[in-house]
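note to self: dont lose this again. the chain is below, predicted strucutre after it. 174 aa total, dont forget to put it in the shared folder this time
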Amino acid sequence: ADLIATATITVTVRQVTISWSEGGTDISNSHTITYDGATHRVSAAYGNAIEADIANAFTLTAKGMKDAGTYTATVSLASGWNNRYSLSGNTLTYTINKAALTVSAGVDGEVAYGTAPENVKYTVSYSGFMGTDNADAVFGTSLPAASSGYSATTLAGTKVTITITVTEPANCNY
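---
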């Protein structure tokens, strides 16, 4: 008579470790950069996944990230795949910090006694814009507010400091 032996195996879900990259460079699950005007896109690698399953089993949710702020990219399992795979490292926090912008102010060095304050000419210049950004796009076309102790009755020879205040617009990258 034949001898028959039986054994029981338990099939477990396959653990998949997600690793993240941007432009071919590996990044961690928490990545921070400074605003540079470019749109950033991430991709995921599926460590230990069966290659033939990747297109159907996993869903990458990430949008192009450009403006300063915090974004989240995730990899999730498609419907019906929970009994085959489990995921680790499947959430990426991607932070874009505001870039530094330098603002410089200038005024005509002299004004004649009696000149109305609104006729004092001043300039504002900026340096540090990224990409195609410029002052008009970020701040609009009107000059920022200027304030000082100057008035039309300020005596000749008096030096007055003019303070230029640039107000940061909402959702600014600088």
